[in-house]
Amino acid sequence: MSGNRRRHGVFLLLFLLIFTCGYGQKTKEQLQREKQENLRKIQETERILQETTGQKQNTIGELNALNQRIQAQEDLISSIRNEVLLLNEEIEENNLIIDALEQDVNNLKQEYGAMIYATYKANKGFNKLTFLFSAKSFNQFLMRLRYMEQYAEVREQQARQIKRVQETLSDQVTLIESKMSDKNILLADQIQRNKELASLKQNQSKIVSSLQRREKEIKKDLEETRKAVAKLDRMINDIIKAEIEKARLAEKTTNEAATRLASDFAQNKSKLPWPVSGFVTQKFGKQAHPVFKNVTQDNHWITIQTKKEEKVKSVFNGQITTVAFVPLIGNTVIVSHGEYYSVYAGLRDVFVRSGQQVTTNQELGNILTNKDGVSELKFEIRKNIAPLDPQQWLKRN
């Protein structure tokens, strides 16, 4: 009975360890998927970074790409660290299981040895036949025979139980050796990634210093860009106001279609596809400059830095309201989705025309790469003329 309680205790321990291992934390599979996604982001960011590196002088675009590359590297290291922590927990849990199994094997062996010894003492001076034929009646003979058969079966079960527990113990030892090997590989990877991160941060410091030495030149360029953006903003407001007035005068059926389209657009908040691949270098709203902390700007858009020749795509069904060119920014496409508008500024070539119907993910044009080798899209979403934060509307990248 005591042996059964011990074995039940081992199996209860196994159950609890398996249950608690997967509760309230990421699984190994989730961490590995996260690591693969971080590696994908590093690869994409590295390509964009290489396109902005090697220019005659360091640029804000290069710094933005490098900042994103550092963030991706830190995310990767965090994924590796979490995977190591998970392995540490699994190794500790397996050690507990091994200790419990070893104790169970010892207990079973002691019980088996005690059983053999008891049999030896009970049979001392007698053999099985003598024991059987010394019965005083036939019924007693049958009972002794049945007892011997049952006793032999119990011994066989005990031996099989010892073998099963030993096999489980061997499997656990093999498993923990595999986990230790995985852990050593991860630790070596973590060391290498930390070295890469240190090199990236050293390069980041050099670029910031270089840009700070060119403060007057950069601030002059920034002021010119601000003027261009203000011109773009006025143009967008005028176009949308004209569209609102046009809608007010339109037929009822036209207004109903626009209302349905706007409703569909609103229902897809946080589900819209990204207009280009890449990463956000300027967020919506009031933002500090990446180098000059006393310089801020209030953005009605997000800036997405991407690869050369990247195709810019519509985020939803709609109609091309305007195609226009703005100096220093490039071509701009405005798409109406009922009372909502998406704006794509910074295109080199445009594949659509005003009045044309477009669908989700339809190519509008390709991205413009500026003289510094930076390819970036200014992307806006508006409800009538009110700017909205585009990142709240796009899928999580």
UniProtKB/TrEMBL annotation:
<keyword id="KW-0175">Coiled coil</keyword>
<protein>
    <submittedName>
        <fullName>Peptidoglycan DD-metalloendopeptidase family protein</fullName>
    </submittedName>
</protein>
<keyword id="KW-0732">Signal</keyword>
<feature type="coiled-coil region">
    <location>
        <begin position="28"/>
        <end position="111"/>
    </location>
</feature>
<dbReference type="InterPro" id="IPR011055">
    <property type="entry name" value="Dup_hybrid_motif"/>
</dbReference>
<dbReference type="InterPro" id="IPR016047">
    <property type="entry name" value="M23ase_b-sheet_dom"/>
</dbReference>
<feature type="domain" description="M23ase beta-sheet core">
    <location>
        <begin position="302"/>
        <end position="390"/>
    </location>
</feature>
<feature type="coiled-coil region">
    <location>
        <begin position="208"/>
        <end position="252"/>
    </location>
</feature>
<dbReference type="InterPro" id="IPR050570">
    <property type="entry name" value="Cell_wall_metabolism_enzyme"/>
</dbReference>
<dbReference type="Pfam" id="PF01551">
    <property type="entry name" value="Peptidase_M23"/>
</dbReference>
<dbReference type="GO" id="GO:0004222">
    <property type="term" value="F:metalloendopeptidase activity"/>
</dbReference>
